[in-house]
Amino acid sequence: MLNADQNELDKFSQLAHRWWDPNSEFKPLHDINPLRLAWIDSHAGISGKTILDVGCGGGILSESMAQRGATVTGIDLSDKALGVAKLHLLESGNKVDYQKSSAEEFSDRTPACYDVVTCMEMLEHVPNPASIVSACSVLVKPGGHVFFSTINRNAKAYLLAVVGAEYILKMLPKGTHDYAKFIKPSELSRWAKSALLEPDELIGMTFNPLNQRYSLGHDTDVNYLLHTKKTS
């Protein structure tokens, strides 16, 4: 059975044409991308590396990694998002190999092929996130880096990521997130260790509504990122 929620795919497919509009529903992705890109680069030194971006969507992170000198492949299950990603390459001149595939299917075809694997803002949208974590481990080379980002599951996360972001500040469309699919850092770390991925750094990402800026820091109550390394 495909590890995907068709309602989630349909939801993002309907918005795909707005992926590269920095003032659209995807504005938060544009705003956080410099932060997550710099954080990934600080750990993995991505120039010259082979990178797989799992759940690449319209390619915001994929293209930025390619701009820094990486050889990037992006996979997703949304035809419309991939179509937008490919069209944007014509405008930007960047090079990314976009393919329609699940993480699990791609891991069967290309095990241990990548220096770096990224899976950002995706785990909270799939039925079986632990399976995605396991597939990412299969895809990365021994000693390679795997990066995840997702949303914590607690009352504060519900208030800020769902009520605040979707209903009060209207930063995201209503229904973007399902609180029941949020993931505690302890759960993600446990899945990673079970997949032979050793957690290295857990860091939070917060939003300041006063200056409209995101920052990385110690607060992992809502959004957080996890860097892991493949142990063998």
UniProtKB/TrEMBL annotation:
Pathway: Cofactor biosynthesis; ubiquinone biosynthesis. It comes from the Bacteria. One of its GO terms (molecular function) is 3-demethylubiquinol 3-O-methyltransferase activity. O-methyltransferase that catalyzes the 2 O-methylation steps in the ubiquinone biosynthetic pathway. It holds the Pfam family Methyltransf_23. This is Ubiquinone biosynthesis O-methyltransferase. GO terms for biological process: methylation. Its EC number is 2.1.1.222, 2.1.1.64. It is an enzyme of class 2 (transferase). NCBIfam families: UbiG. S-adenosyl-L-methionine binds at R36, G55, D76, M120. CDD domains: AdoMet_MTases. It catalyses: a 3-(all-trans-polyprenyl)benzene-1,2-diol + S-adenosyl-L-methionine = a 2-methoxy-6-(all-trans-polyprenyl)phenol + S-adenosyl-L-homocysteine + H(+); a 3-demethylubiquinol + S-adenosyl-L-methionine = a ubiquinol + S-adenosyl-L-homocysteine + H(+). Belongs to the methyltransferase superfamily. UbiG/COQ3 family. The lineage of its organism: Bacteria, Pseudomonadati, Pseudomonadota, Betaproteobacteria, Rhodocyclales. Keywords: Methyltransferase, S-adenosyl-L-methionine, Transferase, Ubiquinone, Ubiquinone biosynthesis. The keyword Nucleus does not apply. InterPro entries: SAM-dependent_MTases_sf, UbiG_MeTrfase.
